[in-house]
């Protein structure tokens, strides 16, 4: 409201807005109630402090023990003795690190690293990152923030446990994974559900699969080979990468040079004792004219090197075997076992799309599709497994995807291809196959039906020498690769010719 006084103009000030101090509700209680409640409050506060003290000791045992010991020694023996002891401990640690690095990294480093990273990275930035990533919520003036749980630092990754706030879903965290990785200075962040309301974040700092792994020695003991646990490489956690062939089919997709061949040969390498004994029979189709399977055709019972009538006939033959076995086992057996006397059949199709999608003859294409569908849908129980390899996950092939219960994505070109191969939502859980480097062939993301989390692994590197050894092992006949002769040097020939002349 404007008022004029003696010709001068002035403006009314805005009403004074001062927040009235809000006192906690219990201050309003009558004094006698406060006296009665005081001992209970004291006990509660003591328990709360004790709980937090225990939690700090549990989370930082090394720091607390070191601090207590240092304080005690300084108090009892003085500064010089403390300095002398600290120098001695540092020397012992240095010697341990120099002389036996593996045990040092296994026993001494993890706890120190975990406590350091928890303190310096997660504990001090958690609140800010949660707020800025919109993962904390405020309701009626109260802030609800996801709780930071146990942290384990493994050098190449930090595993961070989180308790979500009410109403939150893992998908919200998956959407913020990239932001979380950048905030905590990691290369990537994967979100895993531990149990309802609890998550584990994998904040990855470096790739433990950069170096290739050679194949293990071939075993003489065929009984040691388990068709449900064939070791074909190593996972990023350092464990063996185990693949199941019995009761499943495998689809492996990867761009050219992604290392599909190494996975194929790693599987055959692991199967070698059973192939030699005849308990496993390998059959193959290689429409690329033998570029892949032609490297060791001796280990196959039968291989076809095109996608024509022979390939289709082979597929139909196997489909017929599946049907014949199924009718024989019906009522007697639930599924194939070695005791049936029938060999386990592994059908390898190197470029599945060439057989069921790119074949120009419509009739052949349809026959091949029908046979592959029959084998994949009914072959699991009768002991027939299909290993389909593919460069380009086209629609025609992806429509078969659900029949392959183990799907493996090696390096792919696009995000959409990862979804096509592994299924929706798996990429958001961390399976970023489009980010696999060209320098790490053999690295793959594996998704098995019934397992929510995809696994990252690298197949063994099977060299030409290994393939020779494999053929010799299976056939018992030493292989001799053709010698590659140097191209004749024209100048040399001319010189020699000149000299003779
Ligand atoms: N597991 C591995 N570790 C190290 N190097 C590998 C591995 N697998 C493959 N390589 C190397 O990568 C190159 C390509 O591998 P490979 O031929 O198996 O790829 P591919 O996916 O089968 O390619 P294409 O589809 O063109 O046949 C080869 O030179 C091979 O030596």
Q: What report would you give on this structure?
A:
Helix 2 crosses helix 3, helix 3 (79-99) packs across helix 4 and helix 8 packs parallel to helix 10 (362-378). The chain folds into 3 domains: 32-99, no CATH class; 125-204, Threonyl-tRNA Synthetase, Chain A, domain 2 (2-Layer Sandwich); 222-475, P-loop containing nucleotide triphosphate hydrolases (Rossmann fold). Strand 5 (147-153) and strand 6 (157-163) form a beta hairpin. The relative contact order is 0.09. 42% of the residues lie in helices and 19% in strands. It has helices at residues 31-59, 61-77, 79-99, 101-132, 170-175, 177-183, 260-277, 309-329, 352-356, 362-378, 395-398, 415-422, 464-475, 490-500; strands spanning 2-5, 8-11, 137-139, 142-144, 147-153, 157-163, 188-195, 198-204, 230-235, 240-243, 250-253, 280-285, 302-304, 344-349, 384-390, 406-409, 443-448, 455-459. The longest helix is centred in the N-terminal third of the chain and has 32 residues, at 101-132. By secondary structure, it is α/β, with parallel strands linked by helices. The chain contains 14 helices and 18 strands. Strands 10-9-18-17-16-11-15-14-12-13 form a 10-stranded mixed β-sheet. The chain has a 4-stranded antiparallel β-sheet with strand order 5-6-8-7. A two-stranded antiparallel sheet has the order 1-2. Bound molecules: adenosine-5'-triphosphate. Residues 212, 254, 256-262, 292, 391, 441-442, 458-459, 461 line the site of adenosine-5'-triphosphate.
